[in-house]
Amino acid sequence: MRVVYLAPVNHSVALFTEHTMRSANPICPERIRNIRACTFGWIDHNFLHRGFFARLSHEELLLYFFLVTVADKNGVSFYDYARIGLMLQLPAEDYVSARKRLCERGLIAYRDGIFQVLTLPAVAHASPASAPPRGANEFQTLKEILQHVKQ
């Protein structure tokens, strides 16, 4: 199956080039991940495609990925701050700030020590601490995304 998408060339909105998305066979077919065999945790592709990955701070990403990893099939977990702080090496104020921003963005719910990872909202909401929104025809390279995560 051939899937074609358009991407800007040299960050110019007017120039586009055609890329072919290829299908790849697994390198280790005996180790294919199976959602039925795991205790749970997954990240929706739309987390990247709707701009959440690019807009979250390093601390927000770290906490979100942790919560996705430890959540049950309903997205629920109940790790306390002491354990999360120790595992993620996050100071208390960074943890509280990241938790608050994730709640404001509609990515998680938090009440009385219980977390729930929520279905993704339709749009990634910007915050002052996040990267500026990009235009509809602008793409980020993986290098740019990873540099943003390291900041």
Characterize the structure shown.
With 151 residues, the chain is of the alpha+beta class. It has one domain (38-150): Orthogonal Bundle (Arc Repressor Mutant, subunit A), CATH 1.10.10.10. Helices cover 34% and strands 18% of the residues. It contains six helices and five strands. It has helices at residues 46-49, 52-55, 58-70, 81-88, 92-104, 142-150, and strands at residues 3-9, 12-21, 76-77, 108-111, 114-117. The strands form two sheets. A three-stranded antiparallel β-sheet has the order 3-5-4. β1 (3-9) and β2 (12-21) form a beta hairpin. α3 packs across α5 (92-104). The protein is globular and about 45 Å long. Mean pLDDT is 79; it is low at 1-16 and 128-133.
Task: Describe, in short, the structure shown.
With 151 residues, this protein is α+β, with helices and mostly antiparallel strands. The chain contains six helices and five strands, in the order ββαααβααββα. It has one domain: Orthogonal Bundle (Arc Repressor Mutant, subunit A).
Labels describing this entry:
151 residues; alpha+beta; Arc Repressor Mutant, subunit A; 3-stranded antiparallel beta sheet; 6 helices; globular; disordered N terminus
Residue-averaged pLDDT, rounded?
Answer: 79
Total number of helical segments? 6
> What's the level 1 CATH class?
Mainly Alpha
Q: CA-to-CA gap between the ends?
A: 38 Å
Low-confidence runs of at least 5 consecutive residues: 1-16, 128-133
Largest sheet, if any?
3 strands, antiparallel
Radius of gyration: 18 Å
Fraction of residues in helix: 25-40%
Number of domains: 1
Order of helices and strands: EEHHHEHHEEH
Number of strands: 5
CATH topology heading: Arc Repressor Mutant, subunit A
